[in-house]
Design brief:
The complex is a heterodimer of chains A (about 400) and B (about 525).
Chain A (H helix, E strand, L loop, with lengths): L15 H6 L5 E5 L2 E6 L3 H10 L1 E5 L4 E6 L3 H8 L11 E8 L5 E11 L2 E6 L4 H7 L6 E4 L5 E6 L3 H8 L12 E6 L2 E6 L8 E6 L4 H12 L4 E3 L2 H11 L42 H10 L3 E8 L9 E4 L2 E12 L4 E9 L8 E10 L2 E12 L18
Parallel strand pairs in A: 3-13
Antiparallel strand pairs in A: 1-2, 3-9, 4-7, 4-8, 5-6, 6-7, 9-12, 10-11, 11-12, 14-17, 14-19, 15-16, 15-18, 16-17, 18-19
Helix pairs in contact in A: 2-7, 5-6
Chain B lengths: L3 E6 L3 H12 L4 E4 L11 E5 L2 E4 L10 H6 L15 E3 L7 E4 L2 E3 L5 H25 L11 H16 L2 H10 L4 H8 L3 H12 L11 H9 L1 H4 L12 H13 L3 E3 L4 E7 L2 E7 L4 E9 L3 H10 L5 H9 L6 E8 L10 H4 L2 E4 L3 H12 L8 E5 L14 E8 L9 H17 L5 H4 E7 L1 H8 L35 E3 L13 H13 L4
Parallel strand pairs in B: 1-2, 1-11, 2-8, 5-13, 11-17
Antiparallel strand pairs in B: 3-4, 5-6, 6-7, 9-10, 10-11, 12-15, 12-16, 13-14, 14-15
Helix pairs in contact in B: 1-10, 1-18, 6-7, 7-8, 7-14
The chains are: A alpha+beta (about 400), B alpha/beta (about 525).
Chain lengths: ~400, ~525
């Protein structure tokens, strides 16, 4: 988790009283200005809750923007590289957005709540960019970050637990679908989305319902070994699942100050999110040019020999440094040592064998390890239950 | 219908010049404009029966002699008057005359007289260097190609060659304000104010505003472009527009007046034509806009057709102006104490001191009209009697400063301000009021409405260093190309900026031809 350098008092989320009560090791971090636990009790056990039972992550600090009005669809089509016209009502999609230079600003999810009504859930604060994008469009943009509390409920038993909570028929919800329920007389929205690559849901309620939701969710999940999870466990799960993280795997363009340090979606392996058939979107001309000219970097997922995480490693082709690692972890479920790397083109094709220069320390003794690694085609963790509908439920 | 290589939006001087140069190169060019008269801000209008005034620009002082020659403007009917000197009116009737290096009257002391030619000499050295940048596209600094590198090398060499002292002075002065520079060089209040006026004319800045040395140099390089110095155009400024139209047509361009461009049409990533007010679409390989950048991008193309970063730059582009115009039709020649008829035909300025200019500027920051104003006056009918009925005269004056939109709106203030301005003039020209046959005050929104320039800014956007040179009008759309393929800029909003100069139009034509987009 990236922490803010600002020495301001941190905010607490609507779940804070419950989160604090369940965080005996008192391991807190600053996530986008909010006090959030890096871990509740044990990172590995929390991680295994996601993969084996149900893990619950408080994602309230995520930024949520309501984008509505007659031009909402056109607005998003200009802002995002994806074609949002293809997104149905009560559907969610993953999307990225760029500046004019085709450099990534952020990634996030778009919830289509109506014909002219969307919610954008972003990692970064995006108020000013969203307002600039509104020039010439008849849209209203509301920051509803503090009006919505959110929990990610992820893992093989998550559908079961949420069904017990009252989400009847949730097993019928397809991946990236949205379902609406009532919780204590108030609306509760559930989307089959997440950041773990597993079967999982995100539950959205008003802050007033937050504590009750937490209590009842853990009550319903007790027999299914529901556990709260912190930022570190989530990070492990997302690396295993192949998800990028802003600030870690790329520098948001608005925050980068050195020339050449930004990355385009093409350089991050996200070309599948770029719809060049759209007549206009931010970064289109620059990305077309990049496509014609060739990208500077290639995003590579590396399967590295051994069990030492290749954190911050240089990647070599023979003797030559051709890239660096942005995220790395030993991933327990797939039992592989994975890393994401930025590799200078033309290196980094699937199947390429490279070398990771890994440094690790044991009792102040540093060891340098030159570990062979292979560029793999997509994440190794990709369980069937992630896609199955009806979702596995007991 | 003819297939045009280029459609030029606006038949102002830059649009016509660009069109003429493109047509001379054998391109099929259409210049379209919603007004009935060509020339844009080079315009003549009848104020009252028989009284003709230069409606917008009133002086010609930096119109490139090369363009006059290249386009044969004299043969096309352009006649200019005698070189004018500046007479700075003083309240005691002992006026200051500034004529080339010569200062006369108003108790000018030997020290100032000695310093003035030296000051001009140094400004000319700086202006010559700036001119190297003005006569071509401004070099980009980061992704420089060879043309840009060559320009930068020439610039560096030029800096070196001006000598260490001048080089240090330029670096020190160029970003500061004209108020400090005047105080460094001179003592005479009236002299400092008359010179400082050149720095703030057409801007929304006061003498103490940073950047006013740059605007001073922008005007000072007029001497390098137009050897004659300040002149009036015979027949009124509109004659310049007419001669440019004739020259453009003689070069083979089609000029269509009275037909506004309503929209710039984009197909795919490229601009492919324009929609005219009559509903017709004119397809073309390139659209070259001499309209200001805000009108071009926000109104004619539309923000929704731009990528966000570009839209943001358009929205942030500053176009404020504090310059207004006073027009008077007079039954006779006004009497100014201490001035004979010849002196009256010169450029007359009322700017008692730099403090008075600064104080005249302050109110517009708060959208107020103020009580004391600065005048830059022309009585063109002395040299050109055709402008008014026999024995009668017209007077036009640039007024500094009036706000774009005063509190309560212009309807509530216009008459009061007009009366006040006439009252201020009356103090220098007793009996003027009784001579007035007709009068009008044009304020920034009037210029916006009549000439389409946003904010009423005659530079088509504030000429400040962050909106100048390789950043004019804004990064990503400099060097006459824009971020939108097929769309070019050739007006005052492009490098090197505004005033009747002609360089943006000519530079744009050269750059477009060099790029080969019309082939």
């Amino acid at each position: 988790m990236i922490t803010s350098p600002r020495e301001t008092m941190l905010l607490t989320t609507p779940f804070h009283s419950r989160v604090a009560a369940m965080c005996p090791i008192n391991e807190w971090g600053n996530w986008m200005g909010y006090t959030t636990p890096n871990a509740y009790f044990d990172v590995e056990l929390e991680y295994f809750a996601i993969r084996s039972t149900t893990g619950v992550f408080d994602l309230s600090p995520m930024n949520k923007y309501r984008i509505s009005g007659p031009d909402a669809e056109a607005y998003l089509n200009r802002m995002l590289t994806r074609n949002i016209s293809k997104l149905g009502i009560d559907r969610v999609c993953y999307a990225v957005w760029c500046n004019d230079a085709g450099s990534m600003l952020d990634d996030g999810t778009i919830f289509r709540l109506g014909e002219q009504d969307f919610r954008l859930c972003s990692y970064q604060r995006a108020d000013d960019w969203l307002q600039w994008c509104a020039l010439g469009f008849n849209v209203t943009i509301d920051n509803e970050s503090e009006d919505i509390a959110g929990l990610a409920v992820q893992g093989p038993t998550s559908c079961t637990v949420l069904t017990l909570l009252g989400c009847t028929g949730l097993d019928q919800l397809k991946p990236f679908g949205i379902a609406h329920f009532t919780f204590e007389g108030a609306p509760m929205m559930v989307s089959r989305t997440g950041f773990t690559g597993d079967l999982g849901y995100e539950v959205w309620v008003a802050p007033e319902q937050a504590e009750a939701l937490w209590d009842q969710l853990f009550e319903c999940g007790r027999d299914y070994l529901i556990k709260p999870i912190g930022g570190h466990a989530l990070d492990l799960a997302r690396i295993e699942a192949g998800f990028l993280q802003a600030h870690v795997d790329f520098v948001p363009a608005e925050e980068s100050v050195r020339p050449g340090r930004t990355r385009s979606p093409l350089e991050l392996g996200l070309e599948w999110l770029v719809d060049f058939s759209k007549p206009l979107f931010n970064g289109r001309l620059a990305l077309l040019e990049e496509k014609a000219r060739g990208s500077r970097y290639r995003f590579a997922m590396l399967d590295i020999e051994g069990n030492k995480p290749a954190e911050h490693s240089f990647i070599l082709k023979g003797d030559k440094v051709v890239g660096t690692v942005t995220s790395a972890a030993w991933c327990p479920t797939v039992k592989s040592n994975l890393a994401y790397a930025q590799i200078e083109a033309p290196h980094g094709n699937v199947g390429d064998v490279l070398t990771a220069e890994i440094y690790y320390q044991r009792e102040l003794h540093w060891t340098r390890l030159m570990a062979p690694c292979t560029v793999i085609d997509g994440p190794l963790f990709n369980p069937q239950r992630r896609r199955q509908t009806p979702a596995p439920a007991l | 219908m003819t297939d045009y290589d280029a459609v030029i939006i606006g038949a102002g001087h830059n649009g016509l010049i660009c069109g003429a140069y493109l047509a001379k190169a054998g391109k099929q060019v259409l210049v379209v404009d919603g007004r009935d008269q060509p020339g844009g801000c080079a315009s003549t209008r009848e104020l009252a029966a028989g009284f003709h005034i230069s409606d917008c620009a009133q002086w010609l002082y930096q119109f490139d002699d090369d363009i006059v020659r290249d386009l044969g403007l004299q043969a096309a009917g352009l006649t200019v008057g005698r070189a004018k000197h500046t007479v700075a009116l003083q309240s005691d009737g002992d006026h200051l005359s500034i004529d080339g290096d010569l200062l006369r009257g108003a108790g000018i002391e030997a020290k100032d007289q000695a310093a003035y030619p030296l000051f001009r000499q140094q400004m000319n050295v700086f202006a010559k260097l700036m001119l190297k940048l003005y006569r071509g596209r401004a070099p980009k600094l980061v992704e420089a190609n060879w043309t840009d590198r060559l320009t930068l090398m020439k610039l560096g060499l030029g800096l070196k060659l001006m000598g260490k002292g001048n080089m240090q002075d330029l670096m020190r002065l160029v970003l500061i304000n004209i108020y400090d520079v005047m105080n460094e060089n001179f003592d005479h209040q009236g002299l400092k104010a008359a010179l400082a006026l050149d720095a703030i004319t057409g801007t929304g800045m006061g003498p103490r505003s940073p950047n006013t040395v740059f605007t001073y140099l922008h005007r000072a390089l007029g001497h390098q472009l137009q050897a004659s110095g300040v002149v009036q155009v015979m027949g009124g400024m509109g004659a310049l527009g007419e001669s440019l139209k004739s020259a453009a047509e003689a070069s083979g361009a089609t000029v269509r007046m009275g037909c506004r461009v309503e929209q710039i049409v984009k197909e795919g990533d490229r601009v492919c034509g324009v929609v005219l007010a009559d509903g017709s679409t004119v397809p073309t390989k390139a659209v070259v806009s001499s309209a200001d950048p805000t009108t071009t991008f926000a109104d004619l193309l539309g923000y929704q057709h731009l990528e966000t970063g570009m839209a943001r730059r358009v929205a942030q582009y500053r176009t404020r102006s504090g310059t207004a115009k006073l027009h008077l039709a007079l039954s006779g020649l006004p009497t100014v104490t201490g001035l004979d008829n010849d002196a009256l035909s010169q450029r007359l300025v009322i700017a008692p001191s730099m403090e008075s200019i600064e104080l005249a500027w302050n109110p517009i920051k708060y959208a107020e009209c103020g009580h004391h104003h600065i005048f830059d006056i022309s009585i063109p009918s002395i040299e050109d009697p055709s402008l008014a009925p026999n024995g009668q005269h017209v007077l036009t004056a640039l007024i500094h400063y009036l706000p774009y939109e005063p509190q309560g709106g212009w309807d509530a203030h216009r008459q009061t301000v007009l009366d006040n301005l006439i009252e201020q003039l009356e103090a220098y020209a007793p009996g003027l009021k009784a001579q007035i046959v007709a009068s009008e005050l044009l304020v920034p929104p009037d210029f916006e409405a009549a000439y389409g320039m946003k904010g009423g800014n005659w530079h088509h956007g504030e000429l400040s260093i962050d909106q100048a040179l390789m950043m004019r009008p804004f990064p990503g759309s400099s060097q006459y190309s824009t971020a939108v393929p097929g769309l070019f800029l050739c007006g005052a909003g492009a490098h090197p900026g505004g005033s009747l100069m002609g360089l943006p139009g000519r530079n744009a034509a050269r750059e477009i031809l060099k790029q080969g987009v019309l082939a």
